[in-house]
């Protein structure tokens, strides 16, 4: 690519870059470095002395039952959120792509939850599932099913999955719809002439052609479920009951900010940074490349 | 339209309306609940139709202290959220635009190094470095201040990338022409680049405003003084009342007010919103 003719100036580029670089260094790079450094230290209970312990914090984490279960919780939660929100969004996008009248109105009516904060989404669903006055609890009770997410870990998980997925449907819907609308009409018409019905067309033509969009959304949704749902969990379940909804990010907060176990919290931060790094690399390396057919 | 199947078209509309209703249900229930008194809410299952306490509930939380846990009015909470959201939005847009300008239009040492440094921030969301970032902000004595709420969040790799991508599409002739006419780098930025970036700025504004307004973990960490609480984080404080009865007639109107500004922005600036979503993912 030919470069844009550049300006030459000794200090102006640094003045322009300065604010961004300073904020990045002070509030991003330096704390991240601190997290790495602290993950190699153990501080005694009174903060009197610290000891350099190499990988002891990591070793302790990797043998910790609680950390294992938090990892599993995060996996179940991410799978639930990703599956539910992408499934519903795909169904709605396929339907919206089919109808000619009113698809703009449907779009407006479906995208607004994107603007709702994860914590607020949590509160909305928490209210509907409230064990004593919630409307859904009432309906479930009529069907002979008792709902109390503050006692039942499985139900607590279902509640946070629904609240987190509800907010994400709008995002997935927009991208699925854009993906569907970019599929050439001629392909679909050709298969219709060859006698393929709507269902067959969907599974043999539309769905495979959507795979780049689906893969992109898969990564985005996993990132969302891992890192952006702290508010949902903190507001709805506080990681409970009995740690049943304590995801990795919630645990970093709980161990560090509430439990004040700096070494363990820092080691968890480092592991999470590696996960984000991996997901970011996957996103940048493979997303642009279109899937081959 | 590939073929005419009225049955299938009807089915599509049916599914879409069902989707719209399910998506909107929590909002409706929240609004209905916000118009009833505490006694009405606790007495029976939540009603499905608005009550007569709309003015009482909303004027109570907007004027007086919101609840026992949050001693300031919801108007003040909304104002704090607005200051934080606008601070983050304008901060991000300004420093990203100038940074991208430097990276694209200037030759200097460490140009690529600076670019990668900014890229790194993508891999370091605040959620993964909670404790050390809190310590930095505490050391700088920025706890309980608007600076502490906004400044640490204004670095933005996505916004810098977006402006970089856009600046790379500026035709060379435009720069040459500006040069011939005697415009220096500052003049070029203000008179040519900034006006050309209008649509990108609008798209970013929508996305970043939502991001800033919806911050939860960060205000939770850096504010202990309730006069700096934001509305989104204070809802959890209102819920955490231990064994006492939750004051739903306070929580639900606050929840409705907390989601109103960003939702209205998405609905009324839908075109910019969609552009912003798509562009920031490139």
UniProtKB/TrEMBL annotation, chain A:
Keywords: Cell inner membrane, Cell membrane, Membrane, Transmembrane, Transmembrane helix, Transport. One of its GO terms (biological process) is transmembrane transport. GO terms for cellular component: plasma membrane. It is found in: Cell inner membrane; Cell membrane. Residues 71-283 form the ABC transmembrane type-1 domain. It is a multi-pass membrane protein. It comes from the Bacteria. SUPFAM superfamilies: MetI-like. InterPro entries: MetI-like, MetI-like_sf, UgpAE/MalFG_permease. It holds the Pfam family BPD_transp_1. The chain crosses the membrane at residues 12-30, 71-96, 108-136, 156-180, 201-227, 266-287. Belongs to the binding-protein-dependent transport system permease family. UgpAE subfamily. PANTHER family: BLL4140 PROTEIN (PTHR43227), SN-GLYCEROL-3-PHOSPHATE TRANSPORT SYSTEM PERMEASE PROTEIN UGPA (PTHR43227:SF9). The complex is composed of two ATP-binding proteins (UgpC), two transmembrane proteins (UgpA and UgpE) and a solute-binding protein (UgpB). This is sn-glycerol-3-phosphate transport system permease protein UgpA. The gene is ugpA.
TrEMBL record, chain B:
PROSITE patterns: ABC_TM1. NCBIfam families: PRK10973.1. This is sn-glycerol-3-phosphate transport system permease protein UgpE. It is a multi-pass membrane protein. The chain crosses the membrane at residues 7-31, 82-106, 113-134, 146-167, 188-213, 246-268. Coiled coil: none annotated. The keyword Cell inner membrane applies. CDD domains: TM_PBP2. The gene is ugpE. The keyword Transport applies. InterPro entries: MetI-like, MetI-like_sf. Belongs to the binding-protein-dependent transport system permease family. The complex is composed of two ATP-binding proteins (UgpC), two transmembrane proteins (UgpA and UgpE) and a solute-binding protein (UgpB). Gene3D superfamilies: MetI-like. Residues 78-269 form the ABC transmembrane type-1 domain. GO terms for cellular component: plasma membrane. It comes from Oceanospirillum sediminis. Its main location: membrane. Keywords: Cell inner membrane, Cell membrane, Membrane, Transmembrane, Transmembrane helix, Transport. One of its GO terms (biological process) is transmembrane transport. Part of the ABC transporter complex UgpBAEC involved in sn-glycerol-3-phosphate (G3P) import. Probably responsible for the translocation of the substrate across the membrane. It is found in: Cell inner membrane; Cell membrane.
């Amino acid at each position: 690519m030919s470069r844009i003719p550049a300006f030459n100036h000794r200090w102006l580029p640094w003045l322009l870059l300065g604010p961004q670089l300073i904020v990045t260094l002070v509030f991003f790079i330096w704390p991240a470095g601190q997290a790495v450094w602290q993950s190699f230290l153990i501080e005694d209970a009174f903060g009197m002395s610290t000891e350099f312990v190499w990988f002891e914090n990591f070793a302790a984490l990797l043998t910790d039952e609680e950390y294992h279960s938090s990892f599993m919780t995060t996996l179940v939660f991410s799978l639930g959120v990703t599956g539910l929100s992408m499934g519903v969004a795909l169904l709605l996008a396929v339907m919206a792509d089919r109808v000619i009248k009113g698809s703009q109105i449907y779009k407006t009516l479906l995208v607004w939850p994107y603007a709702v904060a994860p914590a607020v989404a949590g509160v909305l669903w928490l209210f509907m599932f409230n064990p004593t006055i919630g409307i859904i609890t009432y309906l479930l009770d009529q069907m002979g099913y008792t709902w109390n997410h503050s006692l039942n870990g499985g139900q607590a998980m279902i509640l946070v999955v629904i609240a987190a997925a509800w907010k994400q449907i709008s995002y997935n819907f927009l991208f699925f719809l854009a993906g569907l609308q970019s599929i050439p009409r001629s392909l679909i018409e050709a298969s219709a002439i060859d006698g393929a019905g709507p269902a067959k067309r969907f599974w043999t033509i539309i769905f495979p052609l959507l795979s780049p969009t689906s893969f992109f959304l898969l990564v985005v949704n996993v990132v969302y479920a891992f890192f952006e749902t702290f508010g949902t969990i903190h507001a709805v379940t506080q990681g409970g009951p009995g740690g049943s909804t304590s995801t990795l990010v919630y645990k970093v907060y709980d161990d560090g900010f509430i439990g004040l176990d700096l070494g363990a919290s820092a080691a968890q931060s480092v592991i999470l940074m590696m996960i984000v790094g991996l997901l970011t690399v996957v996103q940048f390396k493979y997303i642009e490349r279109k899937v081959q057919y | 339209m590939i073929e005419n199947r009225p049955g299938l078209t009807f089915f599509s509309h049916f599914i879409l309306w069902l989707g719209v209703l399910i998506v909107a249900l929590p909002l409706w229930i929240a609004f209905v609940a916000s118009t009833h008194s505490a006694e009405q809410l606790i007495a029976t299952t939540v009603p499905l139709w608005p009550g007569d306490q709309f003015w009482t509930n909303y004027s109570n939380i907007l004027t007086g202290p919101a609840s026992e846990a949050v001693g300031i009015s919801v108007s003040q909470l909304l104002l704090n959220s607005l200051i934080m959201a606008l601070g983050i939005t304008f901060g991000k847009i300004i420093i990203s635009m100038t940074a991208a300008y430097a990276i694209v239009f200037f030759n200097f040492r460490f140009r690529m190094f600076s670019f990668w440094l900014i890229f790194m921030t993508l891999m370091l969301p605040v959620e993964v470095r909670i404790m050390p970032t809190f310590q930095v902000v505490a050391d700088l004595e920025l706890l309980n201040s608007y600076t502490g709420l906004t400044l640490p969040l204004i670095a933005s790799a996505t916004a810098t990338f977006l402006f970089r991508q856009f600046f790379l599409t500026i035709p060379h002739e435009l720069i040459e022409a500006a040069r011939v006419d005697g415009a220096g780098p500052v003049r070029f930025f203000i008179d040519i680049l900034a006006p050309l970036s209008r649509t990108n700025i609008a798209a970013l504004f929508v996305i970043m405003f939502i991001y800033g307004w919806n911050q939860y973990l960060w205000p939770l960490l850096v504010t202990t003084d309730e006069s700096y609480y934001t509305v989104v984080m204070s809802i959890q404080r209102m819920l955490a009342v231990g064994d006492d009865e939750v004051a739903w007639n306070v929580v639900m109107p606050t929840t409705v007010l907390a989601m109103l500004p960003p939702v209205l922005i998405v609905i009324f600036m839908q075109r910019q919103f969609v552009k912003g979503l798509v562009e920031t993912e490139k």
